[in-house]
Amino acid sequence: MSTLITNIAELMTQDLEHRVLKDAAVVIEGERIAWIGRAADAPAADDAVDAGGRAVLPGWVDSHTHLLFAGDRTAEFEARMAGEQYAAGGIAVTMNATRATSDFDLTRLALGRVAEAVSQGTTYLETKTGYGLDVEHEARSARIASTAADQVTYLGAHLVPAGQDPEAYTDLVCGPMLAAVRPFVQWADVFCEEGAFTAEQSRRVLLACRDAGLGLRVHGNQLGEGPGVQLAVELGAASVDHVNYLSAGDVEALAGTWSGWDAARGTGERGTVATCLPACDLSTRQPLAPARALLDAGVQVALASNCNPGTSYTSSMAFCVSTAVLQMHLSVHEAVRAATYGGALALHREAGRDADGERAVGSIAVGHRADLHMLNAPSATHLAYRPGMPLTYAVWRAGVRER
Ligand SMILES: N=CN[C@@H](CCC(=O)O)C(=O)O
Ligand SMILES: [Zn+2]
To answer: What is residue 341's predicted lDDT score, i.e. its pLDDT?
Structure first.
């Protein structure tokens, strides 16, 4: 079964050549993109969709979410808006609500959040554990997450639960808890920050997880100039997320990780992606991450929603993109790229065509997964020009029309 989508005013491919095609068309065949080019040259297909002069871009790749939770933290948010500082301790409130929720309800909540994201143009997403924080509940979150998200990250090292010895808890995260979640996860993450895990504890967790075959990610430099970025670089993490407070040395270290990467070919050794989370920055009243400086230094950047009840209760990637343009000084093309190709790079899913079966996501090219986001607007510029507007018009995820 093939579908021709034609009369596309602007096709922002986010491919390796950064092509933006005008008066374009795309052919989807099953789950893959079979053809792209000028509408006038398009081949016939079983089915046709008239885009009506709208823009099409890759579906969002949300590379950082925490969707396995129950309850909300409205009171904490209100206190923050009244001047309180964000602190890691709020995680315990969500841990209690999550533990008290049945498997059925936790599954329903996670699936509902994924559906909400997809309806706004997200077609590939990562999510994390981290609100269970004991062996039973982390394993349960990992299991449910693996049924809801494309990739799952183990975040047992999110907070040391009250009354527990930090070193003993770190041992648990590195041992029995890791063993219990291992069948369900691809990545491991640590919250390396004052009030959460020290550099030494974080290193211990990351090394144990790497030994267990997991890729690494780090929550770092969110609340101050901490050791998270340097640790992520030292251990070859796929991404370091938040990155609000960076020294010149941090930026340089991140840039250095990309020296073996050939961006024009998309080959070589991937470095550590800096994942910026603008919705979180606004909700916690932290300075916006220096995405402009990171890009200028040669660092690959991703934008993600960080959807969670404590610091960023939104899955709107469009909001992140408009904020990145309006306030972080990225061009529309750079912001969309960070929210698509950048996220895919952070999840090691930016490459792969017909031959290897793992189709690339986050860009539009022949052989890639047919993840498309049609806007009810003639260009992607409208994402920033009309911030907050419901611009998602149609969504295809792995070739299936979702909206
Ligand atoms: N910073 C650490 N973890 C989450 C927030 C956790 C929470 O407060 O519930 C984040 O990415 O912002
Ligand atoms: Zn997070």
So the answer is: 98
